[in-house]
Amino acid sequence: MSALRTFGWSFGVTALALAAALFLWGPGGLAAVAVLGVLEVSLSFDNAVINATVLRRMTAFWQRMFLTVGILIAVFGMRLILPLLVVSATTRLSPSAVLDLAISKPDTYAEHLDHAHPAIAAFGGMFLLMIALDFLLSERDVHWLVPLERAAARAAGLDRLSVLVALGVLLTATATLTEAESTTVLVAGLLGLLTYLFVSGLSQHFESSYAGSTVGKAAFFLFLYLEVLDASFSFDGVVGAFAISQNIFQIALGLGIGAMFIRSLTVHLVRRGTLDDYIYLEHGAHYAIGALAVILFLTIRYDVPQTVTSAVGVALIGAAFLSSLMHNRRERARRAEGVVSVPGTDTEQGTSEPTTVR
C-alpha cells in the first residue's frame, strides 16, 4: 500500500500524459512520449539513488515538496523552459522568439540546441564530477572497490583535491578544441563548478548551524541542490530526445513522465531504507555519476550514443546491488553460525575472513 501511495501520482500523471499525447498527436505521438519516458528512467536511475542519499536527511515536508513543487520545476523548468533559455543565450534571440522557433521550425531549434551542447555538457559534467569526487575523496566506514577507495581516502587529506582534479579534467577537455570552443567550454565548466560549490557549501553551512538537522534554510538549499542535480542529468536527455521527437511538448511530456517516476522511486528508496539494506548501492550510483560526467566531457568532441551512457550507469549500479546482496548473504550465514563480525573488517576493509567473537 505504501508503494502504491508513493507511485500513485506517477501512474496518474503517466495516464493523463499518454492520453493527452494520443488526443493531440495520435498513435505516433503516443509512442514517442512513451519511449521518451522509458528513456528518461533508464538514464536517470543513478540520479534516483543519489537523490535518496540527500532526501533521507530531509523531513517529510521537504520530501513532499520534492514530489510536488519539485516535479513542476523538473518538467516545466528543467525540460522545457531551461533549454529555451539556453538557446536564447547562445543565439541572442528573445525567449519568445526561441519558443516560436521551437514550434514552427523544430529542426532549426534542434540545431541550435545541439550547437549549445558543448556548454551544456561542460556545465553538467563539472557539477556531476564534483559530486562523484567529493564522495570518493572522503573518509568512510564502508568500502566497495577497496584498493581504489583506500587510496582515495589517503589522498582525501589534501585540501580541495576534488576541485583541483575537476579543473584538470576541464582543462584536458578544452585542449583539443578551437579557441572559441575552448572559451565556451571553460566558462560553462567554471560556472558548473561554482554552482556546485555555492549550493553544496550553503546547505552544509546551514545544516551545521542547526546542529546537523536539515530544516529551514539548510533544507531549502538541499532542495535547490537536488534541482540543479536534476538539471545536470536532464540536459543530455533533452538534447538526445530530438532523435526521437522534434516536438518540444512531446519531449517535455515524455521526459516529465520519466522525471516523475524517478522522484517517486527516490522517495520509495528513502522510506524503504534501501540504501541501508544494500550498503554498496550508494557507491555504485556515485561511480555511475562519475562515469556520466566523463561521458559528458567526451560528447563535447565525440558522438557517444545514449545507449552507452545508460548501459554504463545500469551496469555499475547493478554490480553494486549484486555486491550488496552477496554481503547480506554472508552476514546472514555468519549470524546463523553464531559468528559476530567485528565492525570494520568486512565492509570497511573488504576482507572475506573477518575477525570473529564467539
Description:
The protein is mainly α. It has one domain. It is 80% helix and 1% strand. It is built from 14 helices and 2 strands; from the N terminus they run H-H-H-H-H-H-H-H-H-H-H-H-H-H-E-E. The protein has helices spanning 2-55, 60-67, 69-91, 95-104, 106-115, 117-136, 146-155, 161-174, 179-209, 216-241, 248-272, 274-277, 281-299, 306-336; strands spanning 340-341, 356-357. It has a two-stranded antiparallel ribbon. Helix 6 packs antiparallel against helix 13. The chain is globular and about 70 Å long.
What is the alpha-carbon Rg in Å? 21 Å
Number of structural domains:
1
Task: Provide the spatial order of strands within the biggest beta sheet.
Answer: 1-2
Q: Which strand-content bin applies to the residues?
A: under 5%
Number of strands: 2
Largest sheet: number of strands, sense, barrel closure: 2 strands, antiparallel
Walk me through the topology.
Elements: H1 2-55, H2 60-67, H3 69-91, H4 95-104, H5 106-115, H6 117-136, H7 146-155, H8 161-174, H9 179-209, H10 216-241, H11 248-272, H12 274-277, H13 281-299, H14 306-336, E1 340-341, E2 356-357
Antiparallel strand pairs: 1-2
Short description:
This protein is an all-alpha fold and 358 residues long.
Q: What would the keywords be for this entry?
A:
2 strands, disordered C terminus, 14 helices, 358 residues, mainly alpha
